[in-house]
Amino acid sequence: MSGTHGNTSNAKRTRSAAVPGSIPLRALDAQQLRVLRSVGREWRRVSAGPDVWRRALPVDPDLGSFPAPAQIRPARFGRVVPVAPFGPTAAGAAALPPAPAGPADEGPPAPVDQPRAVYRLRRLLLGPALASTAIARERMRKLVALPVLSADALSSVAYGPEAMLAVLVLAGAAGLGYSIPIAATIVLLMLSIGVSYRQTIRAYPHGGGSYIVASDNLGRVPGLMAAAGLMTDYILTVAVSIAAGVAAITSAVPSLEPSTVLIGVLAMVMLLAGNLRGIRQAGAIFAAPTYAFVVAMLALIAVGLADAAGRDFHPVPHPPMNATEGLGILLVMRAFASGSTAMTGIEAISNAVPAFKPVEWRNARTTLTWMVSLLVVLFGGIIAIVHYSGILPRSQETVLSQLAHLSYGSGPMYVFTQAATAAVLLLAANTAYNDFPRVLSLLARDDHAPRLFARMGDRLAFSNGIILLSVAAGFVYVAFDGRTAALIPLYAVGVFLAFTLSQAGMVVHWWRLRDRHWRKSLLFNATGSLLSAIVLVTAGITKFTEGAWVALVAVGLFLLVTTRIRRHYDTVAEALRLQRHSIEIPRLVIAPRVEVPPQAAEGVEEAEEMKEAEEMKEVDEAEEAEEMEEADEADEADEADDVDEVERVPEEAEEVPEEVRHLSLVPIETLDRAGMRALAYAASLQQPVLVIHVSTGVDEAERFRDQWRLWGDHLPLQELVSPYRAVIAPLVNYIESLHHQRPDLTLTVILPEIVMCQRRYSALHSRTAARLRRALRPLHKVVVTTVPFHV
């Protein structure tokens, strides 16, 4: 499969068919279909008929099929499953020996260009490469999905209320008097955004993140702006969550405060290693921290309110404080923008609708309602007990730690509260490790990001996106010394930019659709968009000099880079478009050379061989004694080595050309110029050819099959419909099965490859050939070669 994925720059993809780790097949426009039909006619003129090529195959290409998606189950504490080996068809059962499945956790040997010590260290930290496994789709119950998908949103109450109070305290007691009205406004905003995203879930039952909604309804640039806001949000989620989690730890153990930055960096390294290993994101083990945090917060709120009730809800007077700023509209707006960061993560459920058990959209809406309700209760409860207890934000200790000390002293409940807070904040950071690479892979599929971000690594995770997130978040965390208060001003811009564009996109969606209850849905989404826009403008203005300018500059740079990448891919797509007079086709009539059985060859050449034997008899007898003597001496000297050699000879013993029996395999993704050139090259060798196409869904398989028939079906085609969220692993598994069927064949895998004339663009194209070489290296008599197409 080449690093090419496009035939036309304006072709649309079917989003529902998109599978992480692959790029969906694009449809050909009318002009391309006409050229494809014309090229097919030229092939018919110079090539043997399809039946001839099929009869020449030395293998049975139909090895069965992969299991149905419903039969794929991950391990209890893992997210990957072995790729089931192909089974023999009924007709070919006798001829097909069972292919060994191979241990799922054994990776390929160390690459020759990598020191063995480095390779072993990498495998120790990240685990073995999962060359024969693929990621499984998971379906979550509501009680599991709630903590897993709500960790980001619910954990924000650990720093959102404190961020709001830290601004109000600058105006002294007069400023703190506005905490309740501002908190009530934020609660109203939470409810409005929550109701808005319930409409998004109904409209996008396959997952409706801000990037998808804005792109579909507002256009490319608003979609990229939403993606920029989302990705900025995820980077800051990691930095802020780690900073708040470390603050919870240092509040409980003040002696660790000088090591704040070091502890945070170590936490990010652990998250990086865990996600590169492909740790499953969902499950009961990951639900525990969120539920523990909710229990701790509800208990803290209950104890605080009970204590306030004992005083007839009279607030404890604040200690004396000096106002450093005047109370004005700008300060109130800054506090509102800071407190609104408690809403981060609300859209996580709308992104993950397909992860729910059926009925997916209904369960997702119910879970979203639970999450928003919990968020309102926790946020409002924390603000209330802070108001009644007279606690003020302090740099040495978090507000939650002060409340826990006030309620529990330093006993076990205090330790439990701090531990649960730190754990859920780390889990919230881990949520970003799931969402950031996914959004980046969507951008890569739409040609707005390098395609290397669209593929999974050897541990079946979006490794490149995970590494990029870690580097970016680590840089931000270290640059701001791991201080939550310094990071908050950067936060609101990205969050509410995505909220605003997503809800505005939904307004356009309902206006176009106008189905039942569209006016009510439009009103909800319009309200959410307006309120989000108010917060966005407020944060951008009031926090511009405090760091919001960094987020705005990041959004601008993101738009510049992504549009330039898209321009490059459009240029490449134009170069790859089928053109009638530029397609390379064979110039002579070609047909595969059918393999001659050894018995027939012996019968035809028997007379000649006997004559040659008589002529050489005397020479052979004269040299025989000397040769045997030399062979005996060599055998005695290297007996152990000879034993090993005897074991290897049956696998790879060809020493002269006529002993090599060929089968050319051409994995092809799309019928563009690079793909057609690879087909022409394979056919010109006049060896048996088998074309392989791996589809990630039935619709994509049918689309490619229609294009293949239009071309003329000149070469044998084997389509593999992979139910796994991977493409390389099923392809490797199929090639392994062919190898086990005919171990005497030399399988030559011929791949089309894009070669950029300007090397600076090389990173924008995938390295499929290198990945296949690594995966197939353990197999004997498998050759991987590429047919370069220069752009």
How does this model look, in words?
A five-stranded parallel beta sheet has the order 5-4-3-6-7, sandwiched between helices. The protein contains 26 helices and seven strands. The chain folds into two domains: 208 residues, 3-Layer(aba) Sandwich (Rossmann fold), CATH 3.40.50.620; 434 residues, Amino acid/polyamine transporter I (Up-down Bundle), CATH 1.20.1740. With 791 residues, the chain is mostly helical.
Q: Could you outline the blueprint of secondary structure elements for this entry?
A:
Layout: H1 30-46, H2 50-55, E1 80-82, H3 116-126, E2 133-135, H4 142-155, H5 160-168, H6 172-176, H7 179-203, H8 210-218, H9 220-252, H10 260-276, H11 284-310, H12 329-339, H13 348-351, H14 360-389, H15 399-408, H16 412-445, H17 463-479, H18 484-513, H19 518-542, H20 544-576, H21 598-637, H22 639-648, E3 662-667, H23 673-684, E4 689-695, H24 698-711, E5 717-721, H25 728-741, E6 746-755, H26 768-776, E7 782-790
Parallel strand pairs: 3-4, 3-6, 4-5, 6-7
Antiparallel strand pairs: 1-2
